[in-house]
Amino acid sequence: MRDFVPSEKAHRDRVLGAIKATYREHGFDEIETPVMEDSSRLNAGLGGDNEKLAFGILKRGLTTADFAAATTNLDLIDMGLRFDLTVPLARFYATHRAELPTVFRSIQAAPVWRAERPQKGRYRQFVQCDIDVIGEGGLIAEVELIAATLATLDALGLEGATVRINDRRILTSMLSLFGFAPETHESALITIDKMDKVGQDGVLTELAEKGLPTDAIEAFFRRPMTMEFLPFGEAAIRKFTPEGIDIAPVKDLATIGDSLGELAERLTFDPFLVRGMGYYTGTIFEVAHPSVDYSLGGGGRYDGMIGRFLGTDVPAVGFSLGFERLVDLVEVAEGDQAQSIAIIFDADVDPKQLLEVKNQQIAAGNRTRLERRTKNLKPLLAQLDSEGFSGYALLSTDGLSEPRAFTARD
Fold it and tell me: What 3-state DSSP class applies to 108?
């Protein structure tokens, strides 16, 4: 968890503003949800390994007897900090469905918390930027999300970004084809999703330790681990998937590519893309960029989640950008903004005069800060310059000087 000095915060706000602005252009509306959710929702078996990283909040009024009687940590907590924004969105939609349009397109940009082992690009508190389409069962939802995400990456200046795509139904069909029992599918996929962390040997070892059939494991990994190809289409996808799998999701991926037109050139098919969350039921995707060896975001279809809260199945699909990884890669210009003026005042200037001058500058549309004059102005001017102020003016009892730019301060 980190602090941000003003210059860092301003940069983060500009990047976040550019992301939200593009999302809004594509017809999405922003919502806000609480940072805490019921523990039962956060630990419903849908969040994969991330559930193990959730911060729990102890029940109020616990006694020594309560601690002694608890068989697991979950017996002692009733709330938790959200580890992603999808579970809160599902609860939000179930609560407010009557107030929302039939097809609801949401934006969420907010912090989440995981008990991670901190490292570069991975923090215990971090911001996610999500867009979701709820209530649309057709592939137009995936098409809209991919188009909006690519437009956002372009707006941030990340040329060369691509979307890796797969379908959970292809993966489960392959597992069945190669001899994995249905009840082992989710466990196997959670392990396969660790490929980028532990490598193929680590995944093979963990699958074997779970007692899964050796023949099935060997058959599954007999094919190359990652395929990327252009153009994106059904013939190419079929070329890299084994005979005998369910063909419906293959056709769906091809339809998504056809619908995206020229944007399909920025899609790559990865038959071993998994996505670790257990709630994904269909299409899944991740953002790749040649400048880094990790994904910049991801998402997929999670048609079964909202039904758990609502009692009625509602189709849903979402795409999340990893803000903390993006913000270190891009620089968003400040654009046309009002001048930022520092009023450097002498010690004998009356406070009433200070406030009058400041209010005049604000009324003129300038961001204005009062700064007490120091004996040596150079350090103060350098600081103001580094903080993005466009100029300064000196205020004495005789009045206000003409504003000066920092480039002319000598």
Answer: strand
Host H or E run for residue 231:
none
pLDDT given at position 67: 86
Indicate the pLDDT class of residue 150, thresholds 50, 70 and 90: very high
- For the chain, the 3-state helix, strand and coil shares in percent, each to the nearest 5, are 45, 20, 35
Structural contact between residues 257 and 267, judged by C-beta atoms closer than 8 angstroms: yes
State whether 140 and 281 are in the same domain.
Answer: yes
Q: How many CB atoms are closer than 10 A to CB 328?
A: 12
Domain boundary among 302, 327, 352: 327
Average pLDDT, the chain: 86
The continuous run of DSSP H or E covering 249 comes out as: helix 248-260
Which residue bears the tokens 């795509």? Answer: 165
Shared domain for 167 and 267, answered yes or no, is: yes
Q: What is the pLDDT of residues 48-66, one digit of tens each?
A: 567 778 888 888 888 888 8
Asked if residue 334 belongs to a domain, the reply is no
Is 207 inside any structural domain?
Answer: yes
Share of the chain above pLDDT 90, in %: 32
Domain that holds residue 230: 6-327
Q: Is the pTM of this model over 0.90?
A: no
